[in-house]
Specification:
The chain is α+β, with helices and mostly antiparallel strands and 334 residues long. It has eight helices and 17 strands. The protein has two domains: 187 residues, Fructose-1,6-Bisphosphatase, subunit A, domain 1 (Fructose-1,6-Bisphosphatase, Chain A, domain 1, 2-Layer Sandwich), CATH 3.30.540; 130 residues, 3-Layer(aba) Sandwich (D-Maltodextrin-Binding Protein, domain 2), CATH 3.40.190. Helix content is 31%, strand content 24%. A hairpin with a 3-residue loop joins β7 and β8. The longest helix has 23 residues. Bound molecules: 2,5-anhydro-1,6-di-O-phosphono-D-mannitol and magnesium ion. The site of 2,5-anhydro-1,6-di-O-phosphono-D-mannitol has 12 residues, from β5.
């Protein structure tokens, strides 16, 4: 790229060209990016800062919270509460919604996030990330949890920031997917990839194979066929990757294709899946679709699911279009 385009310039140009990023949304995205920079710094300190290990508390999902889960959550709230662009926020780490306090003006947007996804990877120094989704608050006074319960197709912006060998912010406002790499010397995100496209076919899958005995027949069938390689019905060899950070797995798929699955399994039959719909599956599904891929829960498009609870879970199959369609077809044939 000959001249460097900062995130700020990218957003201003998007606003000018298409007029579909209102100024409040632009501010919101810049604030989220700034918060991600702070989280990236905390992540990078590792054992040199007071950021490693367990916080000794549980979140609403009954999962142990790490110190960094809590730090990242606080950074996002503090960065976003005063700007006047938001009405409320919701997070994996908070049971209820966080309404912008009365001392600040209220805006028309709702922000949802998983402040630190893949937190089991913190101690082992493997990529982790922040996932976010932006919705418009429905008309009316006040704000309630009900206002958040909108299908993923209603998102007005979505993205994630991956804290890996590089810190990369990936964003969509409904006009394709753009990637920005953090320039640590300048302290700004620089556009490094535009109009990201996922190849329709792939020979790479991502799934936690240790759960195989718990899967449903269609998922077993798909993986079994991949494992048979050249000699099997697919007639080609497949490769496998599993990072256990959805952000890192999705980032690889946006970069070189592949299919990612965290399907329903028999360990907890009453839960539709492990991953959360509103701040994990929805933003990732929109990014994947915007890059030409597909995302379903095996039965329907994830972005069409009408949520009934803030923290509801969902089965996830996303990535290269033809593979996702194949797994979805196996579900309907079963
Ligand atoms: P988290 O939000 O508590 O970190 O959990 C979500 C993560 C995903 O990033 C990842 O795909 C998955 O959990 C890994 O789960 P498992 O350890 O069961 O393979
Ligand atoms: Mg998560």
């Amino acid at each position: 790229m000959s001249s460097r385009i900062s995130l700020t310039r990218y957003l201003v140009e998007q606003q000018r060209m298409d007029g579909h990023i209102p100024s409040q949304l632009r501010l919101l995205l810049e604030v989220v990016a700034r918060a991600c920079k702070s989280i990236s710094q905390a992540v990078n300190k590792g054992a040199l800062g007071d950021v490693m290990g367990s916080a000794g508390s549980e979140n609403v999902q009954g999962e142990m919270q790490k110190k960094l889960d809590i730090i990242a959550n606080e950074v996002l709230i503090e960065a976003n509460e005063w700007g006047g662009h938001l009405a409320a926020m919701a997070s994996e780490e908070m049971e209820g919604i966080y309404v912008v306090p009365n001392r600040y003006p209220q805006g028309e947007y709702l922000l949802l996030f998983d402040p630190l996804d893949g937190s089991s990877n913190i101690e082992v120094n493997v990529s982790i990330g922040t996932i976010f989704s932006v919705l418009l608050k429905p008309e009316g006074t006040g704000v309630s949890e009900q206002d958040f319960l909108q299908a993923g197709c209603k998102q007005v912006a979505a993205g994630y920031c991956v804290y890996g060998p590089q810190t990369t912010l990936v964003l969509t406002v409904g006009d394709g997917v753009a990637m920005f790499t953090l320039d640590r010397e300048q302290g700004s995100f620089i556009l490094t990839e535009e109009d990201v496209r996922i190849p329709e076919n792939t020979q790479e899958f991502a799934i936690n194979m240790s759960n195989m005995r718990h899967w449903d027949a269609p998922v077993k069938r798909y993986i079994d066929e991949c494992l048979q390689g050249k000699e099997g019905p697919r007639g080609k060899d497949f490769n496998m990757r599993w990072i256990a950070s959805m952000v890192a797995d999705v980032h690889r798929i946006l970069t070189r294709g592949g299919v990612f699955m965290y399907p329903w399994d028999k360990r907890e039959p009453n839960k539709p899946g492990k991953l959360r719909l509103m701040y994990e599956a929805n933003p990732m599904s929109w990014l994947i679709e915007q890059a030409g891929g597909a995302a379903t829960n095996g039965k329907q498009r994830i972005l069409d699911i009408q949520p009934t609870q803030l923290h509801e879970r969902v089965s996830v199959i996303l990535g290269s279009k033809n593979e996702v369609e194949r797994v979805t077809r196996y579900h309907s044939e079963a």
